[in-house]
Amino acid sequence: xxxxxPVITALSGFLVLIIGVLCTWYxxxxxxxxxxxxxxxxxxxxxxxxxxxxxxFPLLFKVYIFHVTNPDAVMIGEKPILKEMGPYIYDIEVxxxxxxxxEKDDTIKxxxxxxxxxxxxxxxxxxxxxxxxxxxAALMGMILQVQTMLPSALTMVKDAxxxxxxxxxxxxxxxxxxxxxFGGITLFCSAPEIDFFCSTMKGFLPQTVEVAENDxxxxxxxFRFMNNTAVGPYIMERGMKPNSTRGELISFxxxxxxxxxxxxxxxxxxxxxxxxxxxxxxxxxxxxxxxxDICRSVFVKYEKPVTFEGIKxxxxxxxxxxxxxxxxxxxxxxxxDEGSYVCPPDGLVDLSPCIKAPVLLSFPHFLYxxxxxxxxxxxxxxxxxxxxxxxxxxxxxxxxxxxxxxxxMSMILxxxxxxxxxxxVTQGVxxxxxxxxxxxxxxxxxxxxxxxxxxxxxxxxxxxxxxxxGIILMVISFLLVMHQESLxxxxxxxxxxxxxxxxxxxxxxxxxxxxxxxxxxxxxxxxPQVENRNLNMSFINKNQHNQGEVWQFKL
Length: 555
Description:
The protein is of the alpha+beta class. About 25% of the residues lie in helices and about 25% in strands. The chain has helices spanning about 5-40, 45-55, 70-75, 120-125, 135-150, 155-165, 175-185, 195-200, 350-355, 385, 445-485; strands at about 60-70, 80-100, 105-120, 130-135, 170-175, 185, 210, 220, 230-235, 250, 285-290, 295-310, 310-315, 350, 360, 390-395, 400-415, 430-440, 500, 505, 515, 535, 550, 555. The longest helix has about 40 residues, at about 445-485.
């Protein structure tokens, strides 16, 4: 049995090693993929479906206002001086309602609803009652729209705006943060002198203006139309079948594409609604997010691997080409009567085809935009760390750990001779406000994810135990073979023993007998190669009191 120990040990080690390798490349990854797929599956009743349907923690909606400190000077052509006020922080409750699952197509149809609540604690000393002076976007937007669509009607606008804004003395709006963002500012249309003008306005209202309850006046607010409103339907893929991508939108408002922009590429529905993403083994180049409020998808590009709260993740960030004028983005520009694109300066997107108002979208403080835009006003300071959009995502579960969508809304301030109010104003792209829609996963979710990853890490430990044990067993089998074949430096080739033999007396007083060491019978030779030699040696211990003893050494 001991003879076969090396073979048995080697085979056992090889078998254990193969098991470890198979677990590394196939077994354990399949187990992990199966467990993750089970955790993130969008089935009614699962945790993932509940979180997707009603997000258990709010998004943070941060608003920064560009307060104009020198409105009178701007009216006579001087450079605006802007003071950034904020952030005014709101909680956004996100809910996806009326969800309908199509098992055959592996899709979900739903409506997206957002509800905003002012967060006094996070806003600190800032209040919705704070006073602010900004460009009157409703008035300026109305004038620009009329000039574009029907320039001859500018005289009608000149006669109407004193009734609509009875306290207006310039092109700026003085109001509170609460009224500007969600409360609403009344645009008066009750005067009979402007009845025709107001009736015409009802057919061209942008999203930011709605008809008041009295059915005569109008209410202007930057985000009132977004609050507590269900948008949709959306249809997205669940990613539970091989040909399905998790979170990918395939329809909005029951259409597979938009009909807003001047090209099929710009009208495509790319990416998710930012509530769900697809899993990744390695980072993809771009991740798209579709935002219905601006009627388009915007991408973030892979930047680098990061560690967030002890979890390995990928960071994606917005780049200059996300909003710049490239061959792929030209179709976002409005076109003139000749069919040519009329694009704003680089880094700006004209949202008028989407929201029916001449609002210009950019990154905050004109980050990555044409450098001349920054020179229009004092108080602009673009900074990548504070103004870029980014997403940090855990790739295996496609969980967004943190991220921010940051955009700025501006409008052209233009000198128009037909409107006395605008005859001498400074011309340029005037910043109004910028937004930071921010999310960070709560600590309890982080702990839950870490706990699950730790359990998965145990499989990695088991894998290395198999591999290490297999290698050790194979090394042991090699050592056993060396021992059996007496090839190891500490193995015994033979043993030599030395023992005393009884002494014998010499026969005479001075005569010593020779010991024949070359006698092959009595004393076998230690050196056979010299057996033919006649070697006699005498070992005599002389002593003055006795004749001596001869000691005989046996080998």
